[in-house]
Design brief:
- InterPro entries: PHP_dom (IPR004013), PHP_domain (IPR052018), Pol/His_phosphatase_N (IPR003141), Pol/histidinol_Pase-like (IPR016195).
- This is Metal-dependent phosphoesterase, PHP family.
- The protein is an alpha/beta fold.
- The protein folds into two domains: 200 residues, Alpha-Beta Barrel (TIM Barrel); 69 residues, Orthogonal Bundle (DNA polymerase, domain 1), CATH 1.10.150.650.
- It is built from ten helices and eight strands.
- Helix 2 links the parallel strand 2 and strand 3.
Amino acid sequence: MIDLHIHSTYSDGIYKPAELVAMAAAKGLKTIALADHDTVAGIDEALEAGQSRNVEVIPAVELSVQFDTYQDVHLLGYLIDHRDRIFLDKLAEFRTIRDQRGQAIIANINVKLQHEKKEAITYDEAVNFADGAFGRPHIARVLVNRGYAKDMQDAFERYLIPCDEPKRYFPMDEALAEIRRLGGIAVLAHPTSISEERKVLATVIGKLAGKGLQGVEVYNNMCNADESAFLARLAEDLGLAATGGSDFHGIEGGIEMGSGRGQLAIPHTLATALKNMHHL
C-alpha cells in the first residue's frame, strides 16, 4: 500500500519528515509522497530517512491555487525538481506573504482575546511550531496549548475563521506551468472540496485537463466509495492519472496515514503509473 498525500512540520503537520517515514515503515507502506503546503523544505530529510527505512519517498508539493471563481483549490505537484532555484525563490516569496497574513490574523485574535479578558498570544509562539511554511494550524495549536480552545476544530471555529484575513493564491495557469517546468506531474487534490455536484466537477476537471492537468486524487478522505468510483471513471475518460492519499497531518481525529478514516487502501500500482508518466 502507499500514501501520496502527507504533511510534515514544514507546513501544517505535527510530525517531522523522518518521523513520518518511520511511521510509514511501521505501517508497511512502500511509497509515500511528502506534499507540504507551498514548501519543499522537508523533502531531503524525508528522502534520506526513506533510504534507511526502505520506504520510497516521492518529492511533492501542494500549492494553493485559484481557478475561475474557485479559491483555495489544492494542486499537487509530484516528482518535481524540488531543488530548482527559481521555484525555491517563488516559494520563499509566497511564504513571506503567508507570514504577513499570519501576523494579521494573530492581531485580530488578540483583539478578540482582549474582549474575553484573556492574555494575548504571540507570533513567536505560533512560528515555533513551524519548520517551514507558517499557517493557521500553528496559531490554532497555540490557542489549544493556552487552554483557549479545547481542540484544533474548536480553535478554528472560535478564533481562526472569524479572525481570518485574505489568502494569496497561485493562478491556476501559473501553477500548472510551474509544475510542468519542474518536470513534475500536476494532480488535483481532493476534488470534491471544489464541489460535490458531479456535473460541476466534470466541467471543472475537463477544463483543467485542457490546461495541462495530468491527474486526479481519486482516493481521499473527502470522498465516499461512490464518489471515488465517479472520479475514477472521469479520470479514465479524460486520460488522467488516478492517485490517492490520506492528507495526513497528525492533528485530525480518526485520520491515519495510509488508511485515512479507514476506507483507504491505495495500491502501489498507482505510484508505478505516476512514475511511468514521469518518464514519458
